[in-house]
Design goal:
39% of the residues lie in helices and 22% in strands. By secondary structure, it is of the alpha/beta class. A hairpin with a 4-residue loop joins strand 5 and strand 6 (111-115). The chain is globular.
Length: 356
C-alpha cells in the first residue's frame, strides 16, 4: 500500500456540524496501517440547511435534490477554506472521502440516502471525491451500517477490546470468535438534543439539565421494551424509527427534565446490557456524546469494566478519520465493508468516485 493523504468528511445524524479530518495513511514494515491526523476542524451547518434537514420528511423530491446540491456546495466551500487555513496544497490530497448527510435509511426496503453532491464537491475543489459508501452493501443484502468497525480494528485495536460511538445513535463494535460484530445499540444524541432544544438549548451540556430531572420508571420500561432491542444483529437504526417508535413514548412525562433523565438512563442501561451480555471488559468511547459527563457517569454506574475516553481529537474526529480510511480502501480496490457486521452476502468495495 502506498502512502495516502485523504480528507475525511463526516456529518452525523445529530446534525452538530461537518467534521473534516486531514489524515495520512501508510503501512509499516510489520504490515500495520499507521495513521496521522494532520489537521482537523468542525464547521457549522448553515441555519437554512439545518432547518431543511430537520423537516426532511415533509419536503418535496425537488427540494431534496436542491438540498443535495446546496450541501455539496457547502461541503466544497468548507474544504476550500480548510485547505487555505492549514496551507495545504490540494495536489497533495489523493481524495476526499465524504460520508454525506443521511436523510433516509431503510435497508430492509433496499435503500439508504446520503446527500451532499459528490460531483459538486469534486468540481468546486478540483479533488477526486468518493461518497455513497453504503449503497453497495445494501444491494448485497446488508444493512449498509455500521461501516466504521473495519477502521476500529485496523486503526485502534491496540487501545481497547470494543469501540462505542455515541453520536446521533449509539453503535458498538467488538470481536466474537475472531469475527467482527457491530450494530446500533440505541439512540444517542438525537433525542437528548431534541429535548434540550425545547428548553432553548442546542444540547444539554455535560448532561446538566438531565441531572436535575427524575427517572420516570414507567417511561423507562416503555423504552426498554421497544421491539428493536429484541432483534439480533445485524441491525441498525434510522430517524424514521425514532419518529415512529421512540418519540411517541415521551408523551408519558410532560417534564423535559424528567424525559432527559429517563432517556440518559435508558441509553446507559442499553449500552451496559450489550457490554455485559458479550462479556466485554474494556470499551473506547468516541463521538459527541462522550462529552456528556452525566451520561458517561451513568454508563460507569452500570459497567464495571474499563471505560476509556481518548484524546479530544479522537473523540471529535474518529469517524471522519475512519471514513478517510474507507476512501483509502476504495482506492486500493479492497473491501471496505464487513459482512459479519452488516449482514451483506459478500465483501464489497463500496463507494462512488467523482473526478474533478
Amino acid at each position: 500500500m502506498k502512502a495516502y493523504e485523504i480528507l475525511g468528511l463526516m456529518s452525523g445524524t445529530s446534525l452538530d456540524g461537518l467534521d473534516i479530518a486531514h489524515v495520512r495513511f501508510e503501512k509499516t514494515k510489520d504490515d500495520v496501517i499507521k495513521f496521522t491526523l494532520i489537521n482537523s476542524k468542525q464547521y457549522d451547518i448553515p441555519k437554512e440547511i439545518l432547518n431543511q434537514l430537520l423537516e426532511i420528511n415533509t419536503v418535496s423530491a425537488t427540494s431534496i435534490y436542491l438540498l443535495d446540491t446546496e450541501i455539496g456546495k457547502h461541503y466544497a466551500n468548507c474544504i476550500n477554506n480548510f485547505l487555505q487555513e492549514f496551507k495545504i496544497d490540494r495536489k497533495d490530497i489523493d481524495a476526499i472521502a465524504s460520508h454525506g448527510q443521511t436523510i433516509f435509511h431503510q435497508p430492509e426496503k433496499g435503500y439508504t440516502v446520503q446527500i451532499g453532491n459528490g460531483e459538486q464537491i469534486a468540481a468546486m475543489t478540483q479533488i477526486p471525491v468518493i461518497n455513497d459508501f453504503r449503497t453497495k452493501d445494501i444491494i448485497f443484502g446488508g444493512q449498509g451500517a455500521p461501516l466504521v468497525p473495519i477502521g476500529d480494528f485496523d486503526l485502534f485495536s491496540d487501545v481497547a477490546e470494543s469501540f462505542l460511538n455515541i453520536g446521533g445513535f449509539c453503535n458498538i463494535s467488538f470481536k466474537t470468535n475472531n469475527e467482527i460484530v457491530a450494530f446500533d445499540i440505541c439512540p444517542g444524541n438525537l433525542p437528548l438534543n431534541k429535548l434540550a432544544q425545547v428548553k432553548g438549548l442546542n444540547y444539554d451540556k455535560n448532561g446538566d439539565l438531565a441531572k436535575t430531572g427524575e427517572i420516570n420508571f414507567y417511561l423507562l420500561d416503555l423504552l426498554n421494551d421497544l421491539k428493536f432491542y429484541e432483534k439480533t444483529n445485524p441491525k441498525s437504526l434510522g430517524t424514521e424509527w425514532l419518529e415512529e417508535q421512540f418519540y411517541p413514548c415521551l408523551k408519558f412525562d410532560k417534564e423535559i427534565e424528567n424525559n432527559l433523565r429517563t432517556v440518559v438512563e435508558h441509553i446507559a442501561y442499553q449500552i451496559y446490557s450489550v457490554l455485559k451480555s458479550n462479556a466485554i471488559s474494556s470499551v473506547l468511547v468516541s463521538g459527541g456524546g462522550t462529552k456528556n459527563q452525566f451520561l458517561i457517569d451513568r454508563i460507569r454506574h452500570y459497567f464495571k469494566g474499563d471505560v476509556i475516553i481518548p484524546s479530544e481529537d479522537i473523540i471529535d474526529f474518529k469517524e471522519a478519520i475512519i471514513f478517510a480510511y474507507l476512501g483509502v480502501l476504495y482506492l486500493e480496490g479492497k473491501p471496505n465493508n464487513v459482512p459479519s457486521v452488516t449482514g451483506a452476502s459478500k465483501s464489497v468495495v463500496g463507494g462512488v468516485l467523482h473526478l474533478p
